[in-house]
Amino acid sequence: MRILMLSWEYPPHIIGGMGAHVADITPALAAEGIEVMVVTPRLREGKPDEVPSARIRVVRVPIPTMDAASFIGFVAHANQELERAARDLYLQVGGFDLIHTHDWLTARTAIGLKQYWRIPLIATIHATERGRGRGALHGEQALHIDGVEWQLTYEAWRIIVCSHFMSRQLHETLRTPLDKIDVVPNGTHIRPSPFASTEARLAFRRKYASDDEYIVFYVGRIVYEKGLHVLLDAWPRVLRQVGARLVIAGSGPYLDTLKAQARALGLEKRVIFTGFISDEERDSLYYVADVTTFPSLYEPFGIVVLEAFAAGSPVVVSQTGGLMEVVRKDETGLFVRPGDPESLAQGILSTVQCPDRSSMRVANAWQEVHDLYNWQHIARETITIYQRVYTEWQASGWGKRPSLPPEGPSFLPSGPGTDAGEG
């Protein structure tokens, strides 16, 4: 089976959980015999056309420089380039059995190609604009994105989400039928310790804290919904009881606001903003952190939690969204009330002040990652969905008619005025 995979993010361009998911599921699918052709915009370095293994090909499409005045226009233009590249690839390889796209940013390409080639479309929805806006849509851009998300869920044959929380959200906000949605969790890899010796571990740790200080770690996108402003408000409460350094790794539009908040709280010497870090640095920080925390206000799943589990780092998370499905209360991690600095501070303090209980949760979490959240298992669940859709499509009448004329544009208008009911 040959799959066209469309994603706005793919290594070396990874910003959040979507990019990490696509980067990991692609080789896992290939290992199970699926041929995966990835088409993605070339937003960072990377070869324009790469064959990293026998069953994977990655086409990174050059796109115009972003117009700062119109992100929506930039995405639309980029989708035109992605579609052209996908059509060229189709002719080179002899066609695709299915299209699998990720989130709204590549939706226009996916929908257009679905109608042009008359083959089924599967969409993985990692997050929604309404979720990021805490149930509301703020401004014309948010309204536009919400409309594209609706159309994508309408046009797709099946929808994959990473949690039951996301399934409910799509049903409630985008009116997606529950029987059209499949829940397949995210995963991670269990990697060996990056440190060859205790001395090497200590040397790395001393880059961030002295030996008598705890390290509390966050890694991810720096956006409002991750709750990092709550973490900064909690930090003075932690420091009143223990010596510690807070390490916040990642980049995003909220970074300057957080730095200003840290200055206003007098925390410049107790909080380290690393900016973007490499995977190697991230993994090393997981291994030396005394607490890894994710105080999200909105979180569809949280791959980073699984990464912390796999590295043996004690976890403190907000009791919200998909985190409530990944973390088992008091068994694999601690929950705190979302948006509550006092609750977050207590969760962090309890973790470092009760090491025996923390060690028990770490052991349970590691075993859960090993048993449930491995990419081989997730790839097989995804392939089952591919096979179901392909079989249903073969048995149907849809797609057996002539395709759209090659000279016409394949982008379709938003809304229910398309023939998407067939697919």
Number of strands: 14
Tell me, what's the shape? Answer: globular
Strand sequence of the main sheet, in spatial order? 3-4-2-1-5-6-7-8
Rg calc: 22 Å
CATH class of the largest domain: Alpha Beta
Mean pLDDT: 91
Quaternary form: single chain
User: Sheet bearing the most strands, described?
Assistant: 8 strands, mixed
The H/E string reads EHEEEHEHEHHEHEHEHEHEHEHEHEHHH
How would you describe the overall organization of this protein?
The chain has 423 residues and is of the alpha/beta class. Helix content is 44%, strand content 16%. The protein has an 8-stranded mixed beta sheet, sandwiched between helices. Helix 3 (107-117) packs parallel to helix 5. Residues 404-423 have low confidence and may be disordered.
Briefly say what this structure is.
The protein is α/β, with parallel strands linked by helices. The protein has helices at residues 17-31, 71-93, 107-117, 129-132, 139-155, 164-173, 198-205, 228-239, 255-264, 279-288, 303-311, 323-326, 341-353, 355-372, 375-395, and strands spanning 2-6, 35-41, 49-53, 56-61, 98-102, 121-124, 158-161, 181-183, 214-219, 244-249, 271-275, 291-294, 315-318, 334-336.
